[in-house]
Amino acid sequence: MNPDYQLMLIAWAGVAAWVAFVIFSNRKIHPKALFALFMVELWERFSYYGMRALLILYMTASVIDGGFAFDDAKAYGIYGAYGALVYLTPLIGGFFADKLVGFRKAIVWGAVLMAIGQFTLFLSGNANEVSFYIGLAVLVVGNGFFKPNISSMIGRFYEEGDKRRDGAFTLFYMGINMGAFLAPLTCGAIGENEGWQYGFLTAGIGMVIGYLVFVWGSRQGIYEDVGNGPDVELEKPIIPGLSNKLLPAVSTVIMIILGSTLIVYNDIVDVILVVLAILVIGYLLYEAGKMELQAKQRIWVVVVLLFFTTVFWTFFELAGSALSLFTARNVDRSLFGYEIKTTFFQSFNPLFIMLFAPIFSWIWIKLSNANKEPAAPYKFGMGLLLLGLGFLALNLGGASASAGMIPAIFMVLLYLLHTIGELTLSPVGLSLVTKLSPRHMVGFLMGIWLLSSSLAHQGGKHIAKLTTVNEKTIVQSDAFKTSEMDEDVKTVLLTKKFTDKLDDNSIESVLTDSSFIAELNLKGNKTYSKSSVYVKEALEEAESYKGSKKEKMLKAASVSFITYEDNTITADTVSQSELKKLTENTPGTAVINSIRSESLNKGLSVFEMLGFIAMACGLILFLIGKPIKKWMHGIN
User: What is the distance between the alpha carbons of residues 337 and 349, in angstroms, rounded to a whole number?
Assistant: First the structure.
């Protein structure tokens, strides 16, 4: 069996055992509804993160590998807009739940839409960009109806001041991350091995299962009367001439059309988000101005912490964009003798959540019982400090880099520190919003809170672009011109004819191009030739497949590289270790390593800057924590 699938099955068995343990050990502490919603969210996050693990790799993969061959900047723009809109639409979904349909109907409608969106991506493949954008837009709208309302629904099962509340949200957050852990190992494994579209199909099936679990819980009466309808029914139509019952469906169609357009023309999202943030926060402060002092100041706390949580998520969410491509290009993915798929690295964060979430839940309860639990501002500050340390830890890996590749363990360390930071901030933030919000505004305020993730994804697009790698630009840089390599190869590569070829071709294909080798041989200093071999392990893996997939794998098993004529390789098939030795001193290896090193340095310089900014924000929160705690009026 494919080792990727072996790991996937082991992960599923481990999660099944862990879920059973969590439910059994907490069954007398929390209501049954928590565990039903826990499973629903697990499957929804499986669907979301399974698709996310593939998205940036799918968009930047070559056409022959089933992708769209988008350049980094275009892919980051689409990814950023998609993520921004996913977390922007909860403002509308929360409003509809609060005013028109209630939590339950909003959750069901969102689940149905997300399943349709995943299946649309599966059916479209890389032949139809229009259906790709429509699929993303349907996912966006589905998340909008689903995301704020399932968290708000959980809050209804705990009275204000209930000490179990933070523990419940931490366990719920662990359910989120169980789904997120399985997603890259399942959708990622299937997508990278069988074809991207099958990864999307798997994500869609996961969403269908989540929908069925929610409907089952509703029919069993587990949710009692929670979420059946809005707290206050609106008597008049929101839009004159349009029934309130039809408004959600009409709005869905409009949002899908608008969403797909904005994903394509994603720079418009920058302006929309800035304007929307100003309007929404302005409206919130206006409403707060009409409230009594305690409620007003609690709203102020939400607004202040919203800024810092936006900074956190802007940097954290680079995991699906810049950090994903950085992992593919600049990380030696061998760990414990096994080469890990790029998508698998996105399982480390949720794995650590699963391991540490129960510990943090226990810590908060113990500290609360002893009246020593730190207030939310200090938890947020701690999260930002750890986030910054994660980026700086990645920079330590630069000192151990070889051929422009850092050891995988440093990427794992980054995810570990980011995870601990996340555990001090994110579940606490979700719980805090439900505690600080007036009852009639819980869904809307949860939507505003999730707005931070919307701003984060769109802002992250611009940060990710700072790490964009362009081989042509690197080749034309002063650093490349002064690097040590075969001077003839460098000279020919720097001519306009061949630097221009880097616009549409990789450095490897240019170096092995017959015209490039012919140009080299005209110089007469040395004689160059092209060597081609098949990689034994890749050929063996290809034999386990059939049809077009097998053909693609057989083609990928062939590796070509430039050599000196007296060192031309005559072997037909070599192992991975033999290939590494054969190419170690070839003239093209120094060129490729130089480009990788410059790519690595560019990425690490950006990550170092992010590390220091995050730590500075954390320190600011510690300094202003005391007045913020006062405004919370007894809520911690």
Answer: 21
